[in-house]
């Protein structure tokens, strides 16, 4: 605890003396971050810096509204399904996220509208098979794209010649 400022002494000299004496005692020697640059130096000011710092320190993610969190989970599930090793693993991942989506559509979640439909398990498995052919399986050439639809003649084509 610091003592009171003596009368007649200026604030600056009193504070400077206290800092100098504390430095001589070694009070500042083992502070965390000593010798390291200041974090986020040169970045624009963020009002929620302390919340983000706490979340990083606790290894947490920023809390999202329910619908946005489910969308993020769905994206992560599709990414993990594409990295899955077996077809059964892909089916399990997609089935699980589909159950979560179905539960979310039955109850009201906070946030913007969900606008997320359950994934077609067979379609996801088909895409996975194309990216991960089984060893020894013959590689079939990709199907040619369907021909473009025929152009429909405009009933007003006679107007083009009138210009």
Outline the structure in words.
- With 163 residues, the chain is an all-alpha fold.
- The chain has a domain at 66-131.
- Helix content is 47%, strand content 0%.
- The protein has 6 helices and no strands.
- The longest helix is centred in the middle third of the chain and has 20 residues, at 87-106.
Sheet/helix structural class: mainly alpha
Helix coverage percent = 40-55%
Terminal CA distance? 94 Å
- The global form is elongated
Alpha plus pi helix count: 6
Strand content: under 5%
Uncertain runs are: none
Global mean pLDDT = 81
The major beta sheet can be summarized as: none
What Rg, in angstroms, do the CA atoms define?
Answer: 32 Å
Order of SSEs: HHHHHH
Q: How many DSSP-defined strands?
A: 0
Which properties best describe this structure?
163 residues, 6 helices, 0% strand, elongated, DnaJ_homolog_subfam-C_membr-28, DUF1992 domain-containing protein
